[in-house]
Amino acid sequence: MPQSRILIPTKFAPPRLSTRSIPRQGLLQRLHQLRHCSLVLVTGPAGFGKTTLLAQWRKTLMKGGSRVVWLSLAQEERRFAAFWTHLTASLNHEGVALEDNVLLLDPNASGSVQTVAAALIQALSRVPGELYLMIDDFHHADDPQTFRLVQTLVDCRPENLHLVLATRASPAMPLGRLRAAGLLGEIECADLPFDFGETTAFLRDHVEGSLDVNTVQMIQELTDGWPIGMQLVSVALKANPGSLTRLRSLVVKTGNLHAYLTEDVIGHLPAALVDFMEKISILRRFNTDVAGYVAETDDAARLIGTMEQQNLFILPVDFDDGCQWYRLHPVFADYLGERIARSPGRAARLHLRASRWYADHMMLAEALRHASRCADPAQAIELVDRAAPPMADLGDLGNALRWVESLQLDLVRHHPRLLLLGCWTYALTNRLEKAGQWIQALQQSPESGSESITHQITLLNALLAVLREDAETSLELLERTPQPEIPFLQQVRAALLIIALSQMGRHAEAHSTFHAFSNLHRGNPEMGVLPATTAAAAALLEGDVLRAQRISASALGWAEKLYGRRSGSAAGAGVVLAAALYEADRPAEAREVLANRLDVVQHSTPYVLVNGVLCQARLQYLESPPAALSFLAEQEAAFRTRGLDWATACVLAERLRIAAQMGDMHAATRLLMALDALAAQHRDATGIRAGILALAAQANARVALLERRPEQALRYVAQLQDYGVQQGRGRPLVTADMLSAIAFDMLGRQDAAAASLTSALAAGYRMGLVRTFTDEGARLGALFPLLGLTGDGPTDAYRQCVAASFRPYQATPAPAVATAGMPAPQESGIPESLGLTRRESEILVLLEQAMSNKRIAATLNLSPGTVKWNIKNIFAKLGVSSRYEAIVLARQQRGER
Question: Looking at the Swiss-Prot or TrEMBL record, what is one Pfam family this protein matches (predicted)?
Answer without folding.
Answer: AAA_16
